[in-house]
Design goal:
- This protein is of the alpha/beta class and about 220 residues long.
- The chain has a single domain, classed as P-loop containing nucleotide triphosphate hydrolases (Rossmann fold), CATH 3.40.50.300.
- Helix 1 crosses helix 4 and helix 2 crosses helix 9.
- It is globular and about 45 Å long.
- The termini are far apart.
Length: about 220
């Protein structure tokens, strides 16, 4: 499935649509994670490493955002997980109206956890509320240790940060400790997980965080019922 949309300016309309999306997700008891990073940081690879670890625990679905192709959506479907592709054309990020339109074609009833993989971009996605519950920012060590200093807004907005491709730090000459310090300077509270989707390093701790976040969500819903 795919949906080709062109974004029009209108921040007030976007905010209102984000609110409607959030209400829809809340009513359906779906936890939504907005997944953001620079191009090539490994968002889809992280999903490919994460989803199998959630199988049997939660019903997972993915909305993919990309400029042109549906290659990432195909990778997710290969895991046996429903995925919907939004092609944005020349627009470098998803917005709430794109997501709302996608939901009309991609029913999410019965889904516990919905990942929205945003277009690779460290600037525009930070400014757009999609109606998500949590924001996950992936920072690859190959992006460089000074990336959080160059793009602080997106890291400041994160609820959780994954440092990906830690297995390449030595060969790439990247100081992971410095990267973590710069991340902490941008965001003092978000949990930071170092992982390698290729080798599996750190994935256990990351999956534990996801499960705990879902458990906290379940307790909150039960309390408010």
């Amino acid at each position: 499935m795919e949906h080709i949309l062109v974004r029009t300016n209108g921040s007030q309309a976007d905010q209102e649509t984000a609110g409607r999306n959030r209400e829809l997700f809340e009513m359906a008891n779906i936890t939504v994670i907005n997944l953001m990073s620079a191009p090539g940081a490994g968002k889809t690879s992280l999903l490919e490493a994460t989803i199998p670890g959630l199988r049997g625990w939660y019903e997972v679905a993915v909305i993919e955002g990309d400029l042109q192709t549906d290659l990432d959506a195909e990778r997710i479907r290969a895991l046996g997980v429903p995925s919907h592709q939004i092609k944005t054309g020349t627009v470098s990020h998803l917005d709430a109206r794109m997501v709302n339109s996608a939901l009309a074609e991609f029913p999410v009833q019965g889904v516990d956890l919905l990942f929205i993989e945003n277009v690779g971009n460290l600037i525009c996605p930070a400014l757009c509320d999609l109606g998500e519950k949590l924001r996950l920012v992936v920072c690859s060590v190959t992006d460089g240790s000074d990336t959080p200093k160059k793009y602080p807004a997106i890291f400041r907005s994160a609820d959780v940060i994954v440092v990906n491709k830690v297995d390449l730090a030595m060969s790439g000459g990247v100081d992971v400790a410095e990267l973590r310090r710069n991340l902490r300077e941008a965001n003092a509270t978000a949990p930071i997980f170092g992982v390698s989707c290729r080798t599996g390093v750190g994935l256990g701790a990351w999956l534990g965080w996801v499960r705990n976040a879902m458990a906290r969500r379940s307790v909150l819903v039960a309390t408010n019922a």
